[in-house]
């Protein structure tokens, strides 16, 4: 069986599941969002990480139906949490280039929001600099349409691509996610401390929200807090969790 067929079968057999990792205010430890992160529960190989299969899904085009599964799961879950009166009122979903490139992507999102009766701002789409740069005009056009629906856009893995800072204000971007490679050795590494300090200042000036990724230690959190970086995501607060455990965190917070 080819890997493509394995992935296709996995989709048919409902072997994909979505984990959720909290995004948290630095000044209050309040959960503001949950990033949806796919896992493959393979009867043969156990739990597989997206790094093991997303690249194949992208090569074969299966990322489109797999991505739709994640989007649908996240919206469905956002509605469940809303009905339970739980924060967050935001779910973040990673989007591959090929998904945005689908001619009906904006309509798909719009219909999904309608189906689950959710306001657009509940959904944050995480895209990378690479995705923007593949086709700047097409991407901008779609991001503008998504913004009109209220959908939020986050720039993921920020700082690792070929960023031209020029496009940040030209595109309707709400949030920048500072890649964890800049965070893991804070505050000891002077280069990364300077970079993150500059990013925090830039985000403040441009009125962009900031999420620092990969926060594992209290001293990283403290450093980010003094820089007024609004939010963090990382093992310090929680690793990605199965939905039941993520829900428990939200219930405990209430
Ligand atoms: O959850 P984990 O840290 O193992 O994720 C590894 C990588 O897989 C991350 O870069 C993440 O963005 C990516 N990823 C996780 N879930 C999805 C998804 O639903 N779609 C896409 N395109 N990428 C995902
Ligand atoms: O690329 P993206 O930001 O979408 O990927 C999120 C990935 O980062 C997930 O695979 C998640 O497991 C991982 N991750 C989340 N928090 C931490 C952390 O504190 N440390 C490390 N090393 N990885 C993390
Ligand atoms: Mn992400
Ligand atoms: Na990232």
Automatic annotation (TrEMBL):
Residues making up the signal peptide according to the UniProt record: none
Residue intervals of the EAL domain: 1-254
Name the UniProt record assigns to this protein: Response regulator receiver modulated diguanylate cyclase/phosphodiesterase with PAS/PAC sensor
The organism of origin for this protein: Sulfurirhabdus autotrophica
Lineage, opening ranks: Bacteria, Pseudomonadati, Pseudomonadota, Betaproteobacteria, Nitrosomonadales
Full-protein positions shown: 462 to 715 of 729
